[in-house]
Design goal:
binds zinc ion; globular; 238 residues; single chain; 5-stranded parallel beta sheet; Rossmann fold; alpha/beta
Length: 238
């Protein structure tokens, strides 16, 4: 709404609309208070891989998969389970050209990061050059950039590159996913001691595990995985 003040200056009141219900909202978040409460927040989850299928009331619980064989990443932060309406927001942002929704999703993820250990650098999960040309933007890079700005942490889009244009992970079984990604990511230069890798969704964790392995082989000591949503299926990291 645009109004005029006493001395005739134009004053713009940015009335925000909730991205889900479309109603005006006084909330600081892109989603109104009512819709925020209805989102599929992950409650109790594994402290390492954020697996929401973990049950129990302990605040620091590690799931059996991570206990048996700790993954190469140190911590996954995921505010949501990958289901309605978060799944649809991500799909719209990724494939329907509604990239502006990524800003809202980044805001929601930033809320979850406020009391967490901060890395020295934020990077996105890279897209292969060919895939980038097809889609025109890397949703992970847009998310990572926005989060880096919110948190005032350096962002780097070139430290990690994807050199193999591998088939979509969704089309492959567990063993094939691992093989598919092996040696497809490369770290250019030396990473700092701690890095957060940003992506939209984590399904099996194979990509996150492979990237963490590459970063650690290049000298990084702590790798955090920051994602918007995570499937509740059992993880197959190895
Ligand atoms: Zn709403
Ligand atoms: Zn776990």
């Amino acid at each position: 709404m645009i109004t005029k003040t006493k001395n005739n200056c134009i004053k713009i009141n940015h009335t925000k609309r909730c991205i889900l219900c479309g109603l005006n909202t006084a909330s600081d978040t892109p989603v109104c208070h009512e819709c925020l409460a209805d989102l599929p927040w992950i409650g109790t989850a594994c402290q390492r891989c954020a697996n929401p299928t973990v049950t129990g009331k302990l605040s620091r619980v590690i799931c059996p998969t991570c206990q048996k064989k700790p993954p190469p990443f140190d911590q996954v932060i995921a505010p949501f389970e990958y289901r309605f309406p978060v799944d649809q927001l991500i799909q719209l942002a990724k494939f329907n050209g509604q990239a502006h929704l990524l800003n809202s999703l980044a805001e929601l993820l930033s809320l979850q990061l406020q009391d967490k250990t901060m890395p020295e650098l934020i990077i996105p999960v890279p897209l292969h050059q060919k895939r980038l040309q097809e889609r025109q933007y890397n949703q992970a890079a847009l998310l990572a950039k926005k989060i880096a700005r919110n948190l005032d942490i350096p962002f780097n889009n070139r430290l990690l590159i994807k050199t193999e244009n591998t088939p979509h992970q969704a089309e492959l079984d567990r063993k094939a996913r691992r093989k598919n990604l092996r040696n497809s990511f490369h770290c250019i230069g030396s990473p700092p001691v701690s890095v957060a890798v940003v992506d939209d969704v984590m399904t099996t964790g194979t990509t996150a595990a492979e990237i963490s392995r590459v970063l650690k082989a290049a000298g990084c000591q702590k790798v955090y995985i920051w994602i918007i949503a995570r499937t509740a299926k059992e993880l197959h990291l190895f």
